[in-house]
Design goal:
Radius of gyration: 58 Å
CATH topology of the largest domain: Rossmann fold
CATH class of the largest domain: Alpha Beta
Helix content: 55-70%
Structural class: alpha/beta
CATH architecture of the largest domain: 3-Layer(aba) Sandwich
Largest sheet: 7 strands, mixed
Distance between the termini: 160 Å
CATH superfamily of the largest domain: P-loop containing nucleotide triphosphate hydrolases
């Protein structure tokens, strides 16, 4: 087996010409034959062909199905070099199905697939599809595009290739439009012949230069169409400007062409690299969407669009501006069929086209793998890669892939993609003019003459892309080859580092470089590793590579110059200490500034120091965590003994001494120098390549910072810890855990009074609320000594308050909790200190003040519950009341409230305040009634409230009791007044309200009532009670007085109501007589009687004597009104009857005189006939009688009835 050459393994000649990149316009027989013959139908392509032809055949089987128009778009995606172009070109060959010849053989395109596709169903669909009448238009859109087309670039290309297919001018759309018009008129051939006669040249050869043959074109058009030359000249001169290219027109012209060829004719546009052409241009994407949509709708599924893109459609849309995403909501619907070519497809193609072995060598290769398989697994391993690279799975895998390693398929794809995206290549590679197939063929040819047992190292792929690299990259490697200080193998290592430079997941550590450089199955990895390390040393020395930790990076010439400038940057020890502190305390320890002590759950601040430089702002009085690194100038002198001694200073501190690590200083200084260089040299005016290098350096430096953080994390775990005069044995797996253990020990050994808090509350705020809610001051005082209330801590706080008070110092709550008892040696949680102070308040020892006044008890919890309020709250020790004041206040309280209060100062204080508060609440309620003017005691209530208010404003018990005693006389008066007020408003108020209602009711008939002696006396007494300032003792008289008046009032009302109703009934009777006399109808009767009936109802419900009496006069008035209505009724009836009589007499008939007569009444008021108050003599009598006679005679003469009133 050892004598077998690599070239002898392959079934196909390894050095035969292979068109590595399939081009749409390369249609020579040799290329087409190879493209069809060597097309590998992988499992993936088998699925894609099935999907495409199933969909395509649907349009053939259901030509009138409207759903087909939405399925004519096909999107073929795949990474760079995945075979997209080859796939759609083979589709074009199949759908064309032309005959192709090669070395005497002739085949149609579909015949090549008889041996490639085993599934008869798929093959049947393909053969059925290729027999349909189809025009195939295959093109690379970039090569066909006109740079001046702008937003309509895609549409312009589609029209161009359609015109070209139809034989029209491809480069001048308006000329093609003219040709289309001539063709529709059946004049195109005639025009070409006429043009040939005039110019002796062929029109299609000369049409691109039509402007130079303007006159001949005009003349040929004129003769062909029979139009004037002026008209044709106008069209030729303005045709280009007047030509309108729209998607609707393009779709219409396509449909017209299809209809011309027959109802079953189809056209398919296969567009290569449309995704790259569109890029992130939203206008072009919308252009493509609309073209596809319109073609589907207008051509009803007979025009198809197949496009390729390096990204799938979702990724293309994802790169569009978010604000435009709604514009592309339909595009995915336009391309229902999506075919994605993956890396597995490329592996299979390369294995089939290049690496397929002779059957005769397979057993030997299987034997080789059986012997060396385990070795290969170790040889081809990687370390710290961001993805999984394949190994040989089994012997068959080895046979198919050898002499390459499985990982190289995926890695080379990533190399091609990353180099292209990073801009390290020229235009050709970026446009896809090199393929993976080329690279593998070139590498295979490199080892073709070597014996089996070799492996292809990655650097052998470098030559396949060398000629397409950017000059800055190629020059770097070329110059390295000319460097006498370097060895040939160094160049290979440099090439490998370049190839993986932009592949993020492939790290450039030595172990990975060994795997990438393996050139034999049996290679000695250790020897190769030493060889590579030596090469890296030389390359780094010449600044051809850069090192970051254990990773190496390729440097171009410009990167090398920049790297040398970076090395010249100067850094100080202060810069190093600052960076070291930032990485340790910010990156690793997450900027932790406080340590939560486990026993109390209190966050205790600590100052941070790195190599004698503070990190961040220091807190006065806080404990210190100091770090000593190998970069510190005094690191060599930092012995255990010295660290122990220093950890005892300043009330104790924690010192962390890192172990020595040479790489730390190198990486830290490189980071600082790089950061400083980028900060000072990077600006927008730098060339693009320089800005790219600066960006890469920044990224690399960020990775270096991560490396430093990882390195320092390990060093912190392994460091020596010295705390409060002791060297600790810390066994932690993480730096944060180690730091917390050291700080925990520091707290326990420097906060000596922390143990005073024997009991910690789970919720101090809740406990504060419970204490303040309790009213039993005595009980609170008794509980102070209980262990769970931390009596030792209470004594400590009490002592501090006593001392501060004696020195007349202001005691601020915030400073007490967050300062005094939070710092060493206490370290108490702030809320616990607040709870202790609350206990002292509850036992009557202190007061909380704000703005010079004691905080009211009811407001105290809200003030204490949030620490943001504490800066405005001060604490004062409470002054105890004198014993005699307590005793006196207790006695006064008994007199005032008729109840003896507690003996203690606080108890009595709470008792008296509670009683006063209760009375105040009642008085305020009484005041609301009294203020209306209808209830008594308004002034008394105000006087009582004025006595209570200033007392309740006193918050300090001693001052309250003093004021209470001083106000004795007012309080006793208050007691009497409150008793009367309380009895009235709680018991007598309903009776008083009865009085108010009676007074209002009797006021209607007061003058008549006063004519009765008994009623008059009762009314006078009620008014006296009502006006009394203190009527409380007279309220019991109200009920009998009201009853007395009620009897008289009811009697008067009943008598007057009876008289008035009789008068009303008399008027009703008179009206009824009049109605009978004139035979009045029901309407008249209702109109006359209804007002009087209503008046009777009012009198029945009326309680006012005046109103009842007035009803009699109202009845007479209503009767007069009724008589007037009756008179009007009779007059109208008589007039109508008279008209009837006159008509009968005129006709010669007998007249009937039976109309009832109605005498209208006249009311005479005798009093109105006398001009004097009295009739005194006969003359006055005669004058009166004369006037009366005149009135009577006048009425009689007028046929009126007389009523004397």
């Amino acid at each position: 087996m050892k004598k077998t050459k690599i070239a002898e393994l392959f079934k196909r000649n390894i050095d035969r010409p292979i068109n590595g990149v399939v081009k749409a316009d390369q249609m020579d027989d040799e290329s087409v034959w190879q493209e069809l013959d060597e097309f590998v139908v992988t499992q993936e392509l088998d699925r894609h062909l099935r999907k495409f032809f199933e969909t395509y055949c649907e349009s053939i089987d259901s030509p009138n199905d409207p759903n087909i128009s939405g399925k004519i778009g096909v999107w073929v995606s795949g990474f760079f070099g995945s075979g997209k172009s080859h796939f759609i070109k083979v589709l074009s060959h199949l759908l064309d199905n032309e005959e192709h010849a090669h070395q005497g053989q002739t085949k149609r395109a579909v015949d090549f697939f008889d041996d490639k596709i085993a599934d008869a169903t798929i093959l049947g669909d393909i053969k059925r599809a290729v027999t349909s009448d189809t025009d195939v238009i295959l093109f690379n859109i970039d090569s066909k595009a006109d740079s001046s087309s702008g937003r309509d670039a895609i549409l312009a290309v589609f029209l161009k290739v359609l015109n070209e297919k139809l034989g029209y001018s491809p480069d001048h759309a308006h000329i093609a439009h003219m040709e289309r018009y001539l063709d529709e008129k059946g004049k195109f051939e005639e025009f070409q012949e006429t043009y040939h006669e005039l110019t002796d040249t062929q029109w299609k050869d000369e049409r691109d230069a039509y402007e130079f043959n303007r006159d001949e074109v005009i003349e040929a058009l004129s003769k062909t169409l029979g139009q004037s030359e002026e008209s044709c000249a106008r069209w030729v001169d303005t045709g280009e400007n007047n030509f309108s290219l729209t998607i609707e027109n393009f779709s219409k012209w396509t449909r017209e062409y299809l209809d011309k060829r027959g109802p079953k004719h189809r056209v398919i546009f296969l567009v290569d690299e449309v995704g790259q052409f569109i890029g992130s241009d939203t206008a072009l994407m919308l252009n493509l969407q609309t073209i596809t949509e319109q073609l589907g709708t207008v051509c009803q599924g007979r025009a198809w669009v197949v496009v390729t893109s390096q990204e799938d459609i979702d990724a293309v849309l994802g790169e569009m501006t978010t604000s435009k995403e709604n514009d592309f909501s339909k595009i995915q619907g336009r391309f229902k069929t999506r075919l994605s070519l993956s890396s597995a497809n490329v592996d299979e193609v390369i294995q089939e086209r290049l690496l397929r072995k002779y059957d005769s060598v397979v057993p030997n290769l299987v034997q080789l793998y059986t012997e060396k398989g385990d070795i290969l697994k170790n040889q081809l391993s990687f370390r710290e890669v961001g993805t999984t690279y394949k190994q040989f799975k089994e012997a068959d895998d080895f046979v198919q892939t050898y002499p390459f390693a499985p990982y190289q398929f995926k890695l080379l794809q990533r190399i091609f993609e990353s180099i292209r995206k990073a801009g390290a290549t020229g235009l050709h590679l970026a446009q896809g003019e090199r393929s993976l197939l080329d690279a593998f063929q070139h590498a295979a040819n490199t080892v073709a003459d070597q014996n089996v047992g070799v492996l292809v190292p990655v650097y052998m792929f470098y030559p396949s892309i060398e000629s397409f690299l950017d000059t800055t990259v190629k020059r770097t490697i070329d110059h390295a080859k000319e460097n006498d200080s370097l060895e040939p193998f160094d160049i290979h290592v440099l090439q490998v580092l370049f190839l993986i430079r932009y592949v993020d997941e492939m790290k450039g550590n030595v172990d990975n470089l060994v795997t990438l450089c393996l050139d034999e199955i049996d290679a000695d990895r250790l020897a190769l590793k030493r060889k590579i390390e030596e090469s890296l040393t030389r390359l780094e020395r010449d600044s051809l590579v850069n090192r970051s930790g254990d990773l190496y990076y390729f440097l171009t010439n410009e990167e090398r110059d920049i790297n040398q400038e970076i090395k010249k940057e100067i850094t100080s020890s202060a810069d190093e200490a600052k960076l070291l502190g930032d990485i340790i305390f910010q990156d690793i320890l997450k900027d932790q500034r406080k340590h939560r002590y486990a026993a109390t759950k209190k966050d205790i601040p600590f100052n941070r120091v790195c190599d004698h430089h503070p990190v961040g702002r220091n807190t006065e009085g806080a404990m210190t965590l100091s770090l000593i690194s190998p970069l510190d100038d005094d690191f060599e002198q930092s012995s255990d003994q010295k660290c122990i001694l220093n950890s005892s200073a300043d009330e104790g501190q924690a010192i962390v001494r890192l172990d020595d690590e040479k790489a730390l200083g190198r990486e830290l200084r490189t980071y600082l120098r790089t950061e400083k260089y980028i900060r000072t040299k990077d600006d927008s005016t730098s060339p693009p390549t320089t800005r790219r290098i600066h960006k890469d350096l920044a990224t690399e430096n960020q990775q270096r910072r991560t490396l430093l953080a990882n390195m320092l994390s390990d060093m912190l775990v392994d460091a020596s810890y010295f705390v409060a005069g002791e060297k600790l044995e810390i066994n932690a797996n993480a730096p944060i855990t180690a730091m917390e253990e050291a700080l925990e020990y520091l707290v326990e050994n420097t906060f000596t009074k922390l143990s005073y808090l024997k009991h910690l509350n789970d919720n101090p705020n809740k406990e504060i609320h419970a204490i303040l809610k309790s009213d039993d001051t005595t009980q609170q005082a008794l509980q102070m000594a209980l262990p769970e209330n931390n009596p030792q801590a209470l004594d400590e706080v009490r002592s501090y308050l006593n001392l501060a008070s004696k020195r007349d110092r202001e005691i601020i709550l915030y400073d007490t909790c967050f300062g005094r008892f939070s710092d060493r040696p206490y370290g108490w949680p702030e809320q616990e200190t607040a709870l202790l102070l609350t206990r002292l308040y509850a036992s009557g020892e202190i007061l909380f003040m704000r703005g010079g006044d004691a905080i009211k008890h009811d407001d105290l919890y809200s003030a204490l519950s949030e620490s943001k309020n504490w800066r405005k709250i001060t604490i004062v020790q409470k002054v105890t009341a004198k014993v005699e004041d307590v005793k006196k206040a207790r006695e006064i309280g008994k007199e005032v409230f008729h109840q003896m209060g507690p003996e203690t100062e606080e108890g009595l204080f709470d008792f008296l305040r509670s009683k006063l508060s209760e009375q105040q609440a009642s008085l305020k309620r009484y005041a609301e009634f009294a203020s209306s003017g209808d209830y008594p005691g308004e002034q008394t209530i105000n006087d009582c409230l004025a006595t209570i208010k200033p007392l309740l404003a006193v918050e300090e018990s001693n001052k309250f009791l003093e004021r209470f005693n001083e106000t004795k006389s007012s309080l006793l008066e208050l007691s009497d007044d409150f008793h009367d007020l309380e009895h009235f408003y709680e018991s007598q108020k309903p009776t008083w309200e009865k009085l108010l209602k009676a007074e209002q009711r009797f006021s209607l008939n007061q003058s008549q009532l006063r004519q009765d002696d008994e009623a008059r006396r009762a009314l006078d007494r009620i008014q006296a009670i009502r006006k009394a300032a203190n009527p409380y003792g007279m309220v019991h008289e109200v009920d009998p007085l009201v009853s007395t008046i009620e009897k008289v009032n009811d009697k008067l009302i009943a008598e007057q109501r009876s008289r008035s109703l009789q008068q009303i009934d008399a008027q009703i009777g008179a009206i009824q007589q009049e109605l009978e006399a004139v035979s009045g109808d029901s309407t008249l009767s209702s109109s006359c009687l209804r007002p009087l009936e209503s008046l009777k109802t009012q009198v029945t419900g009326q309680n006012s004597l005046a109103h009842i009496t007035q009803a009699e006069a109202d009845a007479i008035s209503l009767k007069d009104s009724a008589i007037s209505k009756i008179g009007q009724f009779v007059a109208q009836r008589e007039a109508a009857k008279a008209t009837q009589v006159a008509e009968k007499e005129q006709a010669g008939g007998d007249s009937e005189d039976d109309i009832p007569k109605f005498k209208p009444p006249r009311v005479i008021h005798p009093k109105a006939l006398v001009s004097k108050t009295y009739i005194e003599d006969m003359d006055d009598v005669e004058q009166f009688l004369k006037a009366m006679r005149t009135q009577l005679e006048t009425a009689i003469s007028n046929n009126e009835r007389i009523e004397i009133r």
